[in-house]
Design goal:
alpha/beta, nine-stranded mixed sheet, 9 strands, globular
């Protein structure tokens, strides 16, 4: 059965802003967290359909898709969301066409077992700017996702604004629902040498690491105990 309560889904999900249709978080985390929320305004309907009905998530087939209204997920319509985005990035309004939000259930293909991944997982996808998406889906409800993914957010030549990590950092810290207990990031997101660096990760401690195809790494980090938290303020 697909999601019947949006609040429960959001509190249990892995949130991946600027996601493209990158399947690695599903591969690494779906055994423990079988609900995902991807957001990327650069992915159009055709690209989404090709990936979800093709081999976008290896070893899984699309079992069901449900179209959702933006009001159900964000509490307001697309026009209002685009106008909100214009406040921080006016150029985006000309590029953000035909937004949509859908919920999908994927089932593991025959012949594969639990070593490949769970028998099913759910994916909520929104063609929506990442910061607006987080504020209206999570912060407005005072909810933190179970895990946040910060991997190659596409700044500079990827089409994202250069100060996106700073805006993401501020939005996460401003959420009265608290910080995500876990973060999945790569070297570019966790090293001050790179433009993708998210300073909030200073409040987290690494708990698992995987190699990455380009020689870098991915790491899962958990939020430090409150008394041991270090890192930037909300400013």
């Amino acid at each position: 059965m697909l999601m019947d309560d949006i609040k429960s889904f959001l509190a249990e999900c892995v949130f991946y802003p600027c996601s493209e249709l990158h399947g690695l978080p599903v591969k690494l985390l779906s055994h423990d967290y079988p609900r995902f929320f991807y957001a990327d305004y650069a992915i159009d309907r055709e690209q989404f359909n090709q990936a979800t009905r093709g081999d976008g998530f290896k070893g899984y087939r699309l079992a069901k898709t449900v179209e959702l209204t933006p009001e159900k997920v964000f509490g307001k319509g697309w026009d209002a969301l685009v106008q909100e985005c214009e406040i921080v990035w006016p150029q985006l309004a000309a590029e953000w066409h035909d937004p949509f939000v859908v919920l999908c259930r994927f089932e593991r293909e025959d012949g594969l077992d639990d070593s490949h991944g769970p028998s099913t997982f759910e994916l909520l996808f929104a063609r929506c700017e990442a910061i607006v998406c987080f504020k209206e889906a999570f912060s407005r409800r005072k909810i933190a996702p179970k895990c946040l993914v910060h991997i190659r957010s596409g700044i500079a030549f990827g089409g994202n604004r250069h100060d996106y990590p700073k805006h993401l950092n501020k939005a996460l810290l401003a959420n009265s629902g608290g910080l995500p207990p876990l973060m999945l990031c790569d070297r570019m997101g966790s090293d001050q040498k790179y433009g993708d660096y998210l300073s909030l990760l200073e409040r987290y401690v690494e708990c698992k690491r995987w190699g990455y195809p380009d020689g870098g790494f991915l790491k899962l980090a958990k939020l430090r105990a409150r008394a041991d938290q270090q890192g930037p303020s909300a400013d």
